Amino acid sequence: MNEETFNMATRKFLKKVGVTSQREIEKAVNKAISEGKLSGNETVKAKVTLELPELNETVEIDGAIELE
């Protein structure tokens, strides 16, 4: 295994995950606020599931996002 290639590929994947996740979170929160489901000062729970199918590995990451 080439450590440098692996490191760069992992970073590229994580950047894609981060950008996409942020966009989707912002979209969902803005929609919920516009529909009156959120007032904009809550803390929203978040959960990400990372799957590596070929390795039969699944990791769940829980967190919270403060809106104010």
TrEMBL record:
Protein's recorded name: Uncharacterized protein
